[in-house]
Every structure is written in C-alpha cells, then in structure tokens.
Specification:
about 325 residues, alpha/beta, Spore Coat Polysaccharide Biosynthesis Protein SpsA, Chain A, about 50% helix, elongated, transmembrane helix, Glycosyltransferase, Glycosyltransferase_2, cell membrane
Length: about 325
C-alpha cells in the first residue's frame, strides 16, 4: 500500500461477525472504483465474537485493511474517536458496519468534498425495516436535541459523514470524555453540506443502539452543548411559586371575608410530593453535569489499545 492515503474509511465494529465480510466487500468495491489510495480502518470495540479474527484474516490479504483493537468495550463514540486519531487520509468517512448506511453513497460525499465542503453529512429521509416506536423515538430524539442544544445539529443525521483532514485534526485536540461526535463536528463549524438518502434495513445481527443507549446518547448530546437543563430550576420555581402564592392569597381572603375554610391537609401532601419530585429531578440534572466534571478531572485516556505497537504502525506519516 502506498504511504500517502487519500481516503480513510473508519468503521467502528462491535460483535459484527455476521456482516463484516459483506461490509468489507461493498466498501472495497466502492473505494477501488475511485482509483485512489485508501485505507479501511476497522476499530474493534471489544467484540466478544469473531469480528476481530475475521478482520485480521482480511488484513493478511489486503494491505488497505487496518485494525485497531480495544482492550474492552469503550463505546461507539470512543471507537469513532480512535479511528480519527489514527486516520491518515486527506478525507475521512465514518460509517457503521451494519450496512444500514450504504457505502455506495461515499462517492457522492467525495464529490461534495471536492467542491470545497469540509463536512458532508448524510440525512435520512426514510428508515426501512424499523418499528413505528423506533422511528418515533428517533424523531423525538433529534428534535428534542435540536430544541435543547445551543449548536445547530442537523435533524435526522447520524455519524455517517465525510470530514476533511483539517476537521479531523481539530477533533484530535478535543478530548472531552462524554463525547457526542456529530455535535462536536457541528460545533467546530467549517463549510458543511447534506446528502439525502434512504436508510436500509440492518444486513444482519442486532442493533447496537437500543432505547437505553439512545437515551444515554441524548443526555450526552444535551449536556455537552446546552445549559438549558440547569435553567429548569428557575422555570419550575416560578411555575410552582406563582400558583402557590395565588392559592395563599385566596385562602387568606376566604378566611378573612367569609366563614368558609379550605381543608389544607390533602393540598399540603400533594404539594409536598410535587416539590420533592421536582427536587429529585433537579438533583439528577445537577448530578449529570457534576458527573461529567468529575470524569474530566480524572483525565483518564479515552480508550486503551490491546496492542500498542501495532497501533503505532498505523501512524506512519502521510507522504
């Protein structure tokens, strides 16, 4: 393989033995059609199946295949980060291994990049093979994220995108622990363009983003780019104090000017339960932000590679 790499394709993988050969085949067909040097950089995020073994076999017969092996599962966003750390291309494409995002879209991304755009992201206009609940929660996720964050994160986009070398270099300097890659790339700026596509069904295997992980990703995205959740205390305080004050005035007026009284026992219990619930919600929000501060102060590495020497060999400078 030539030392100068034009394109790097980052493929984070976790337990993808059923699909990895087909992913390699389709990516290879697409990249060979471009007739320029490229590398397929697989990042094995602590797979427990034969994923890493299969990629190692592919690497023995194809010099364009590279593999980074994590010592354990560090998560999808960290795997993408590692890929960007070791990418050597002038243009870097991030794509998942499940083939829901079609590799055949990469040439269109490259065309946009050659027009001068430094970030080209893929926007989903249709999602095949997913339940109504999955589609609804995904739509809610993106729109809540857009409403809550202070960065213009495009709707209905995932991590499938192309970034220029200069964007990748900037990302290399951002080492925060709770990472939301698509938000960070939007925050960086540069010239960005969208390409629309239809997302296919998963080729094989199971989704690596169930509802629990989607919620975790949403929390990471919101807390990384917005202080709005912290302002909920002010809004909830006003929302509760104004009706309470009005009720107090009404109760005093009823007591002073009429013979009637209002039983306060039930109202008091309800109000106390409501206030305690609000307090716990606010404590949870504060805990999320404090937890992130705690993670940053520990300054642990984002990931650990199983074989450091092999990884260093991937850092051969571009010619």
């Amino acid at each position: 393989m030539k030392s100068k790499v034009r394109y790097t394709i980052i493929i984070p993988v976790y337990n993808e033995e059923d699909v990895i050969r087909e992913t390699y085949r389709r990516l290879t067909l697409v990249m060979q059609s471009l007739c320029e040097p490229y590398e397929l950089l697989f990042v094995n995020d602590g797979s427990e199946d034969r994923t890493a073994e299969i990629i190692e076999v592919l690497a023995e017969t194809d010099d364009s295949v590279r593999l980074l092996n994590f010592s354990r599962n560090f998560g999808h966003q960290i795997a993408i980060t590692a890929g960007m750390d070791y990418a050597r291309g002038d243009a870097i494409v991030i794509i998942d291994a499940d083939l829901q995002d079609p590799p055949e879209l990469i040439p269109r991304m490259i065309e946009k990049w050659q027009e001068g755009y430094e970030v080209v992201y893929a926007r989903r206009v249709q999602r095949k093979g997913e339940t109504l609940f999955k589609k609804w929660t995904a739509s809610l996720f993106y729109r809540t994220l857009r409403m809550m964050t202070e960065v213009d994160i495009p709707l209905d986009t995932g991590d499938f995108r192309l970034i220029d070398r200069k964007v990748c270099d900037v990302m290399h300097g951002i080492r925060e622990k709770s990472r939301f890659i698509r938000g960070l790339i939007s925050w960086i700026g540069f010239r960005q363009a969208a390409i629309e596509y239809i997302r296919e069904e998963r080729f094989a295997g199971k989704t690596k983003y169930p509802l629990k992980k989607m919620l975790r990703l949403a929390i990471d995205g919101i807390t990384s780019f917005s202080h709005k959740p912290l302002k909920l205390a002010t809004y909830l305080g006003l929302a509760l104090s104004l009706p309470s004050f009005a009720y107090l005035v009404f109760s005093l007026g009823l007591k002073i000017f009429t013979a009637g009284t209002i039983s306060g026992g039930r109202w008091l219990i309800t109000l106390l339960l409501l206030l305690n619930g609000v307090n716990f919600i606010l404590l949870g929000i504060l805990g999320e932000y404090i937890g992130r501060i705690y993670d940053e102060t520990k300054d642990r590495p984002l990931y650990i590679l199983r074989n450091k020497q092999e990884a260093e060999n991937l850092l051969v400078r571009r010619g």
